């Protein structure tokens, strides 16, 4: 049931200290798993958080209401303006605004911060206290501790750095929020949208990722990785070198300029291990590397390494499964 948000805003305003609003990320039909990780980050500050679901149907808001650690869900159908969200934050008296890192949030979170007159803290991977955070830099090879003294902390959360809260078990109410809608030129125009027909899990949500690099030689050779990934119930990824060579589409790229993943198992095949690629997968729970070059940097982060010709090793591994 949808109710007007005014009453809830008053209640939240009364708890001004360390009250957090999560900006839910979604694809228009479902809330992304990364939002669950943002809730975990927020839990380091307070037990429960409010969630704003904007520009999505009420079914997405209902998904958010079921997640653990959610005390209230605010919903608005139309994509809101940055100033509208900033006003909502101020009226609600929130001390923190968190959003998971995504293409969507990279676009609108800085504008929300600007409307609030603050600087955003981006890509946080650890919450030390209510005003101190850790974020990676230098392609993830160094960590910076950032302390903010701003009235409102606006931050994006690196989802792979936090465990996800359960998407079930919560029982928050969903309330209709009144927020000014975005208008041109703030609202981007969607020219086209396409998605693959693969039945494999999404690359950023998969428990197993099998990635190929320049050593694969051609796009046709990625078929052996696809077969291996299918047997393991995983997704297929690639290094930038493989993408730039035209072997696979950009949507499979893992790394600093691609997608950041942290699966239970990451298998790197024919990937040398450039710093930009490592920044996108080094948080994986278990890393297996297959490369014929024993000096390849990938072996420095691998839990298990196999120095071998991938065209012999991968078919043999596949046959054993």
TrEMBL record:
Entry GO CC: mitochondrial matrix
Organism: Pelagomonas calceolata
The protein, known as: Electron transfer flavoprotein subunit alpha
Role: The electron transfer flavoprotein serves as a specific electron acceptor for several dehydrogenases, including five acyl-CoA dehydrogenases, glutaryl-CoA and sarcosine dehydrogenase. It transfers the electrons to the main mitochondrial respiratory chain via ETF-ubiquinone oxidoreductase (ETF dehydrogenase).
Primary localisation category: mitochondrion
Free-text cofactor note: Binds 1 FAD per dimer.
Pfam families in UniProt: ETF, ETF_alpha
Superkingdom classification of source: Eukaryota
Gene Ontology molecular-function annotations: electron transfer activity; flavin adenine dinucleotide binding
Family under the similarity heading: Belongs to the ETF alpha-subunit/FixB family.
């Amino acid at each position: 049931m949808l109710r007007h948000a005014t009453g809830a805003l008053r209640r939240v305003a009364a708890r001004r200290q360390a009250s957090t609003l999560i900006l839910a990320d979604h694809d228009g039909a479902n809330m992304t798993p990364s939002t669950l990780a943002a809730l975990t980050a927020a839990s380091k500050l307070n037990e429960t958080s409010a969630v704003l679901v904007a520009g999505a149907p009420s079914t997405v808001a209902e998904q958010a209401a079921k997640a653990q650690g959610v005390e209230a869900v605010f919903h608005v159908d139309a994509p809101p303006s940055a100033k509208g969200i900033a006003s909502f934050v101020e009226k609600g008296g929130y001390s923190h605004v968190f959003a998971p890192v995504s293409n969507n949030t990279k676009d609108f979170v800085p504008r929300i911060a600007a409307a609030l007159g603050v600087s955003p803290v981006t890509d946080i991977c650890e919450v030390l206290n209510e005003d101190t955070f850790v974020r990676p830099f230098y392609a993830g090879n160094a960590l910076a501790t950032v302390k903010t003294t701003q009235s409102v902390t606006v931050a994006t959360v690196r989802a792979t750095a936090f465990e996800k809260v359960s998407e079930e078990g919560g029982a928050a109410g969903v309330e209709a929020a009144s927020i000014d809608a975005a208008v041109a030129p703030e609202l981007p125009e969607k020219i086209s949208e396409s998605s693959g027909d693969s039945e494999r899990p999404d690359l950023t949500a998969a428990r197993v990722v099998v990635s190929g690099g320049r050593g694969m030689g051609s796009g046709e050779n990625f078929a052996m990785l696809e077969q291996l990934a299918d047997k393991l119930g995983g997704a297929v990824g690639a290094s930038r070198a493989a993408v730039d060579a035209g072997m696979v589409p950009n949507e499979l790229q893992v790394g600093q300029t691609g997608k950041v993943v942290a699966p239970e198992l990451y298998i790197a095949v024919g990937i040398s291990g450039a710093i930009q690629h490592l920044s996108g997968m080094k948080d994986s729970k278990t890393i297996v590397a297959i490369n014929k070059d024993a000096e390849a940097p990938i072996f420095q982060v691998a839990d298990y390494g196999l120095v071998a010709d991938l065209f012999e090793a991968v078919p043999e591994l596949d046959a054993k499964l």
